Amino acid sequence: MSFNDPLSPIRLQLMWDRLIAVVEEQALALIRTGFSTSTREAGDLSAGVFDLKGDMLAQAVTGTPGHINSMARAVRHFLAKFPAHTMKEGDIFLTNDPWKGTGHLHDFTFVTPTFRRGKMVAMFASTCHVVDIGGRGMTTDARQVYEEGLYIPLMRFAREGKVDETLVEIVSANVREPIQVVGDLYSLATCNEIGCRRLIEMMDEFAIDDLDRLGAHVLEKSKQASLELIRKIKPGTYKYSMRVDGADKPIDLVATMTIGDSGIDVDFAGTSGVSAFGINVPVCYTEAYASFGVKCIVAPKVPNNEGSLSVIRVTAPPDSILNAQKPAPVAARHVTGQMLPDVMFGCLHQALGGQVPAEGTSCLWNLFALGGPGSTGGDPSETVHAKPFSVMSFHAGGTGARPGADGLSATAFPSGVKNVPIEVNEAVSPIVVWRKEYRQDSGGAGEFRGGLGQIMEVGTLDKAPFALSAYYDRIDHPARGREGGLAGKAGSLTLSSGKVLRGKGLQEVPSKDRVIIAMPGGGGLGNPRKRPAAVVAEDVRQGFISSEAARRDYGVAVNDDGTVDEGETAKLRAIAAE
């Protein structure tokens, strides 16, 4: 074919690049118009374009795997209820159904059909996390999904350009932050509209009437590229299990991975059953993070779309914690679901003979604080005049050490969300963060050190207590090291007065007290005694590890001036080698 052919290979590549630019602008529009800090500051969202069958053709790089890969399945649920031939120009659809969206009620998914010259040519979808959805709020305490907030089934947000004001009023009346939540709904609609507009401009420029051939080209190329990489891995069946804290009892996440010519199959049979608390995971979210974990190692450079996702097949037994059925509580499904890439890494470590990171903190350690009358669940007389507020701030511990490199400190992996500057929430609430710093000695020792966690000390300027909704893990079961590396340091949650708080659940912080959130570190990789002494000494100088830990874990004696005591170090390492 010649370059002048509208669908020549060269033009197909140009259109593919342009499609990525379209969805990136879609996502940026959501960030720029978003009302809540989770959207505007942290990038807790997703955006993508779909064909008329509901297959995701392209996704924005901006966004989280839990949103993106769940949304990739969600559009099919919309089409099942609202077939493409019934959609009209100006229609906008939405839901926050955890089982047909992205896993919990706090996420809204919007779908907008794109029309060109009166013909439907594509759909744009987007998702973001809203600051509040009513009910008990973002907590693990609910026993059913009905307690967790307002549940909106798949329905129209707008019909032929006219917004359903009744729906907007219902949402406003059921949430604590109506301006932020309704604002985010309009932001979702706006970003989809931007995507529709830019796609039409692209189609006009390239003189194409539909996305059929472009979509088929993108999906087939992505699928074949993924299969080529999978076929380079030693075929076979690999098993791995990981125990995490859970809520009232530990949870075992058990995976069996089968690698073959047609792709990778993951089965979570043997995983613990559903929890009585809101840490259960709808299977859409399980698929999202398990497939992401596989892609990180096997095909990180292959575009994420229906083609590449189709060769990673994930199943989990119904009524297990990774395939919780309605009406199980799921508000904090990320606490469990974000552990799955570590489980996938454990399987792939066996298949690849290394080449994968150690376990990391994985689950987020977000600050979610509430204030106002009755907010703490304690003595109502203490909060009757309290200032109402609801803030969420994204924070994380350390990641596992990587082959050839240390882990990343205070970094949200696998979610990919950004840290929210503390000043943002301090400006809109009485919350004050008195301390925020790296947590020394929290990264697991190894030839490559695990990433450090962080410590935050949080209080209030109000005279009333406030509530902290904790949904933290890796307190009882820290991230494990790999290939001789040591485990990262476990997390902890305490008051400055000395009281130890639970890792999960809504708890009161007295007005004159402070909560100390000590986040876990990532596991180390490789024998710590193989870490160069000069590198260990530099870690001590930087404050990443103490001189005591350098001696104990690495066999390196560091002088007060930061230099290495060569003689003492040689003795320490010789003793360890015996």
Question: What attributes does this structure have?
Answer:
alpha+beta, 4-stranded mixed sheet, 14 helices, globular, Oxoprolinase-like, N-methylhydantoinase B
What do you see in this structure?
This protein is α+β, with helices and mostly antiparallel strands. The strands form four sheets. The chain has a seven-stranded antiparallel β-sheet with strand order 2-1-5-4-3-6-7, sandwiched between helices. A four-stranded mixed β-sheet has the order 8-9-10-11. A four-stranded antiparallel β-sheet has the order 13-12-16-18, with helices on one face. It has four domains: 202 residues, no CATH class; 120 residues; 175 residues, no CATH class; 46 residues, no CATH class. The N and C termini lie far apart (69 Å). 56% of the residues are buried. It has 14 helices and 19 strands.
Question: Roughly how many Å is the radius of gyration?
Answer: 25 Å
Largest sheet: 7 strands, antiparallel
- Total DSSP helices: 14
User: In what order do the strands lie side by side in the largest sheet?
Assistant: 2-1-5-4-3-6-7
Question: What helical percentage do the residues reach?
Answer: 25-40%
> How many domains make up the 3D coordinates?
4
The general outline is globular
Pfam families: Hydantoinase_B
Domain Hydantoinase B/oxoprolinase: 9-528
GO molecular function: 5-oxoprolinase (ATP-hydrolyzing) activity
Protein name: N-methylhydantoinase B
